[in-house]
Specification:
YaeB-like fold; 5-stranded mixed sheet; alpha+beta; 3 helices; globular; two-stranded antiparallel ribbon; 7 strands
Length: 107
């Protein structure tokens, strides 16, 4: 399977700039790896599906977890174009990254 194209949504450039310099390469590496197969795990991919929890509806979104630094990368897929659009990159801190993703999606 060929790599999916990685696109960045509004605000993601600022998310990347805010990351500690030592974490940034890990995030890019994880995104490159996942772009090889960003489908949900139930379809044999790397992504973890998100749903509607605590009133934060991220149904249709997937996430990557970088456990050690506590970073979450939330993305959506356009299967027809093979595009993986990054919505947000941030610390797991409480539910902030999920709330911010919800806002960015305009839901």
């Amino acid at each position: 399977m060929s790599n999916w194209r990685i696109l960045y949504g509004r605000g993601v450039a600022e998310d990347i700039a805010a990351l500690d310099g030592s974490i940034r390469p890990q995030v890019f590496s994880a995104m490159r790896k996942v772009s090889q197969n960003p489908l949900p795990r139930r379809e044999g991919g790397y992504g973890t599906e998100l749903g509607n929890r605590n009133g934060i509806d991220l149904t249709g979104c997937l996430k990557i977890k970088l456990k050690k630094p506590g970073i979450r990368v939330i993305y959506t897929l356009d299967r027809s174009e093979q595009d993986m659009t990054i919505i947000i990159i941030g610390l797991r801190a409480d539910l902030a990254v999920y709330k911010n993703a919800f806002q960015r999606l305009g839901r």
